[in-house]
Amino acid sequence: MKRKLLSSILALGMVASLLAGCGQQDTGAAPAADAAPAAEEAAPAADAEAPAAEATGDMPGSGKTVALCMPTQSSERWINDCKNMKEQLEALGYTVIDQFAEDDVQAQVSQIENMVSQQVDCLVIAAVDSGALTTVEESAKNAGIPIIAYDRLLMDTDAVSYYATFDNKGVGTVIGQTIEEKAGLKDLQAKGESKTIEFFMGSPDDNNALMLYNGLMEVLKPYLDDGTLVCKTGRTSFEDTCILRWSQETAQQWCENYLAANYADEDLDICATAFDGFAYGCKAALENAGYTKDNWPIISGQDAELMACKDILDGTQTFSIYKDTRLLASKCVTMVNAVCNGTEPEINDTEQYDNGKLVVPSYLCTPVAVDKDNMKELIVDGGYYEASQLGL
Ligand code: BGC
């Protein structure tokens, strides 16, 4: 009985700490650092010798199953997203089933159909193709199963209750502003000088990709228009620069082609890429073309993957966008609690994310640029990676 009381108090503490995390402004790693250890601290209590049913009896998730439907394990971030959500949900007593579709649209449809037939209590979906799930989303709705869109908006459906994501247009703005600063674009403009740039944008079936592009171009288009930035391939539109399924191999291939066809006489100065995987592809292409640290371009990325952070410290990638997956997971967990227990999650955007059927109530976390100067403070002190993992 005593143990049961203790676990109930701990469970309530967890919920309070998750909800408290919601009230903070997401301007840095601090809320995430709060959220993640809270989940870790609570987990052992749930294990504490008592039979599982007794230990989780009064928890918000007890008796409920959540399915996490993730896009791929080929990129590290989704593995971390899944792990963080799983830990945090299990600490609240939920049973969690996770599924990765390995970027196969049909596989994801089948996985979700299967979860619907198992009558899970909530579906959390990070889509492979955001518009390809409408039929299975409709069956979930008919079966009374609520859906949370995770990181990527679910398009053309009214079956989605909430959306937890980062400010996707903001990611593009931060990439643009950081390129502007690192390349000294204002100075170049004042002196009438220029730098060359090529673009590697995200998947056309992911709503995030176009939003990122729009944020990026808001910052960089004026420099393209006045000739401060020169794109020698002429490929500056979203249609010409988007890469299906965020393929690293395609980014490498494109970069190799561009270097061979357009940069024989003049160096490429900036690779504006929307994903760490693209940065790795560009890095390989540049190495193959004989670029060295003397003419290495500015290269952007997104996700602050471990390999990207190492490349940033080595100087082969200039910066990435830090999206703390612990924080995003904690926001999503508050949404799962809301649909499963009738509570209210914190929402901070009710305007931007129109999926064609409804404007989905969303929580947008704030993206931050990480480079070698703030790596230790943001990533190591924030507990995202250990100093030893980065060779620091
Ligand atoms: C996410 C990015 C990620 C990309 C490729 C996007 O939907 O928002 O963080 O880099 O997918 O996985």
Overview of this protein structure:
The protein has 392 residues and is α/β, with parallel strands linked by helices. The protein has 15 helices and twelve strands. It has a six-stranded parallel beta sheet with strand order 2-1-3-4-5-11, with helices on both faces. It has a four-stranded parallel beta sheet with strand order 7-6-8-9, sandwiched between helices. It has a two-stranded antiparallel sheet with strand order 10-12. Helix 1 runs antiparallel to helix 2 and helix 7 packs parallel to helix 9. The N terminus is likely disordered. Beta-D-glucopyranose binds next to loops.
Q: Can you list the strand order of the major beta sheet?
A: 2-1-3-4-5-11
Unreliable segments of 5+ consecutive residues: 1-56
CATH architecture of the largest domain: 3-Layer(aba) Sandwich
CATH homology-level superfamily of the largest domain = Response regulator
Number of E-state strands: 12
The H/E string reads HHHEHEHEHEEHHEHEHHEHEHEHEEH
* Multimeric status of the protein: single chain
- Which ligands appear in the coordinates? beta-D-glucopyranose
Instruction: Count the domains.
Output: 2
CATH topology annotation of the largest domain: Rossmann fold
Level of helix content?
A: 40-55%
Q: Which class of secondary structure composition applies to the elements?
A: alpha/beta
Task: Return the CATH class of the largest domain.
Answer: Alpha Beta
**Cα-atom Rg, whole angstroms?**
22 Å
Q: Residue-averaged pLDDT, rounded?
A: 88
